[in-house]
Amino acid sequence: MIENMYHTERKYEGKPIIIDIAEVGGHYEIAVLAKNGFELEMSTCYTIDEAENIYNGYLQKYPESPAPLTGKYQKLAD
Prior knowledge:
Elements: E1 7-12, E2 15-24, E3 27-34, E4 39-45, H1 48-61, H2 71-77
Antiparallel strand pairs: 1-2, 2-3, 3-4
């Protein structure tokens, strides 16, 4: 069972996204979703190994964005 094993929430380009694997009727769906439910990308496969590979590929394709600079740190950067 993969429940909660492959679920990542992060910010990508300042926007919250979810990368997740779901087992649906004998196959796996790997999705990258915006928090509002908009689908950025989705793949379907039939083995957990392939699903893990796709999931890891999405993690690399959509890296965590650093928080924007604010206050004295933004002034220092300017």
